[in-house]
Design a protein that fits this description.
globular; 366 residues; alpha+beta; five-stranded antiparallel sheet; 24% helix; six-stranded antiparallel sheet; 25% strand
Length: 366
Amino acid sequence: MPPGPAPTVLPSTTGGFRTPPPEPAPEYLPADRPRETVLSVVQPPPPVGHVGSGPPTYAPEPTALPPAEPDELEDLVADTVLDGARYGASTLRAMSVRGDSARYRGEPRRDALLTARFGAGERALVLVAMATGARATPGAHRAAAEACRWIGQAVGRSHERLADDIRAARRGDLKSGLHRLTDRSLGRLRASAAEQGVEPEEYAAGLRCLLLPADPDCRTRVFFGVGAGGLFRLRDGEWQDIEPRVADTAGEAVVGYGSLPHETPEGDRLTMDLGITTPPSPYEPAPRPPHAPFRFRASVARPGDTLLLCTSGLAEPLRGEPELAEYLTARWSQGEPPGLAAFLADSSVRVKGYADDRTAAAVWEA
């Protein structure tokens, strides 16, 4: 007797999937009738606009544009940025979107996103950097963009050494070297605040980054940064919050990751190796180090994993609204990564009470 059609897999009310009882085997078809081919396709749940107890307060689409100056058009920030790539065993999707509150008030997106590939072939290194400017400050979007640009420059200049350390699993060298690069980048941000005559807290940004080697034999994924947000892993249908909790840094920073000399050719000492000369007077204090601790995590991905790095705009509702976690589990557990438009729609699902900008990068492991 020929086998019956494959059972249809239906979504359950808990976000997982269940298999219904098998149907009885079909009777033999007459010889003069062609046999019908029955296909069973497992479909993810359709996209939704919001989850939770009710619709959010603000409209779901952009309302007001930020004000523009005719001579400063380069200062404008797009409402939405979307990017993606595929290297080695991983597929990358990245997005940054203005929050509901900023869309309603006509404020620029405070989040910035940078995706960049340094090098070529299997020795290439992919960087994803995201930053969030300080709340209620006029230059928040500029600070976030500068933080991403400066860490991108620093990583790009040291990408060969970084890629070698990732492949060789030199965790200590990576941690101390990336700590140095992060300090240097945020130090330049504080120096820029001083040049503008504003307090460092008014021109600051949290910075979160992900390094992905293009080598298909290397599944090490490296997270580092400073500031609030989230690092999550979807494994075997369950979300794991793997944000580093401890800020301890062992050992000295490694020379070779774009480090500066300890003094200038004129003999001026450099403060914290950030390229800022020691003030000539005790009445001019040096820029303060960042208040938030440096965070670092190097982990080996498994086939089927999905790694999600995001700013607080997505991390907070993902931690606070179980229905959002269940929805993303159902959407992203289908094996194939979503396309760019689908990823944007999934990552933009709104939750009442959460209206900040959202920036996210997800990596699907083949």
